[in-house]
Amino acid sequence: MTAPTSDAAPARDTRFFGQPAALANIFGVEMWERFSFYDMQGILLIYLYYSAAQGGLGIDETVATGIVGAYGGAVYLSTILGAWIADRLLGSERVLFYSAIVIMFGHLGLALLPGLMGVGVGLILIAVGSGGLKANATSVVGTLYAPDDVRRDAGFSLFYLGINLGAFLGPLLTGLLQSTLGFHWGFGLAALGMAIGLTQYAFGRRRLPAASRVVHNPLPTSKYTLMIGIAVGAIVAIVLLVLVGVIRADNLSDVVILVSLAATIAYFIVILSSRKVTKVERSRVFGFIPLFIVSVGFWSLYQQQFTVMTVYSDKRMDRDLFGWEMPVAWVQSINPIFIIILSGVFAALWTKLGSRQPSTPVKFGLAAIVMGAAFLLFLPWANGGENTTPLLAVVGILFVFTVAELLLSPVGLSVTTKLAPSAFHTQMVALFFLSVALGTAIAGWLAQFYDPDNEVPYFSFLGIAAVVLGVAMLLAVKPVLALMKGVR
């Protein structure tokens, strides 16, 4: 059975749980990409700071959390490159396909190359590939729906379900392999998962809408040489900065934060000043700015699952299950379980409410408040001894994480495709991911202030700050909606 290929047909297609059938193909490749990503992410931090006797690299713990935060930020920062190539050169669907290939080779690098060489080569390839796949998978999903299709938020929630099926399975299997056979077997499993995702996507990619292959703002051939020169110059500059010691392992988070900020400012200036953007589109981009700020604050806390939360799970949480010690990586599967359970609930809720559902700014404000509450929930167990926090307490806190995530992440992806100017369709999605890049890098930077012997200030300050940010968003709902010009 062939999926619809016209722009109008997807609005009438309900073959995939009430959504367009083509959603299933993107659902599949994103699921396996997330499988490989969380497979590797579940053991990356402990691989960096575990001793050589434990199979790790023995890097200082603070430096290791900074590397993980910087890597996570670089993944989302790379969405800019993937989005630009899609909008100017190849179209979203082709970039998605090629990015999946790069990701697979990155995981192979981590699995097969020794020590820091494998980490460097592997993480660079995975960051670039994941950035290209993330922005463009989201953009391709957006092409399946007409602008006024009320199923859009529900469709993105189902897409999010695919992401989290992979995120659930990856750490479970990795944790078992790492604890029994070693870290490199876990990284090898990530490569295998990405290969499966790439294969299933290759067979179904031709059935995606023609709109997914459109190059929205083609780059003139006369500028190809200039762009190649800029790319080569950027690579040379990065290499030189590494060689002279300006970019180091212990300041990677700072570098990614600064680059992300610069890229954010530059992107907003380029889009808002473009002659190809209409007055209405420009107003909508201005309306996106407060959403962007709240998103940065949200991800600064949420992405600590891979920094502070990993250390907390390794050292503070009681992982004893009837005499068997649960692998640290398994904690990364708790949040995806709740996503799998609740994403369908949220999708059904938004579908049932239809035009009566809360507006996007309201959902963003509530997400920040709930995320702040999750950090405050750490306080009853703050300053405890080793392995004193009950597993059920962490499960409860991650449940609150999940509620906050579902209020912001799939909704943010959806509203970004609706607010995007036509000439910057995929690049606007990259702007949303830039907020994740900033938040993720900040999460790595914040980890240096986490003190297991004095946790109350850390969890209190961040929790209260997030609640204040959310309340500010709720107070600004009316002016933000006015700027969004009919988009809710």
UniProtKB/TrEMBL annotation:
The chain crosses the membrane at residues 35-52, 64-86, 95-117, 158-177, 183-203, 224-249, 255-273, 285-302, 329-350, 362-382, 388-408, 429-450, 456-477. Belongs to the major facilitator superfamily. Proton-dependent oligopeptide transporter (POT/PTR) (TC 2.A.17) family. Its main location: membrane. NCBIfam families: yjdL_sub1_fam. It is a multi-pass membrane protein. The keyword Cell membrane applies. The lineage of its organism: Bacteria, Bacillati, Actinomycetota, Actinomycetes, Micrococcales. Keywords: Cell membrane, Membrane, Transmembrane, Transmembrane helix, Transport. SUPFAM superfamilies: MFS general substrate transporter. The keyword Ubl conjugation does not apply. Pfam families: PTR2. Gene3D superfamilies: MFS general substrate transporter like domains. Residues 25-488 form the Major facilitator superfamily (MFS) profile domain. This is Peptide MFS transporter. InterPro entries: Dipep/tripep_permease (IPR005279), MFS_dom (IPR020846), MFS_trans_sf (IPR036259), MFS_Transporters (IPR050171), POT_fam (IPR000109), PTR2_symporter_CS (IPR018456). It is found in: Cell membrane; Membrane.
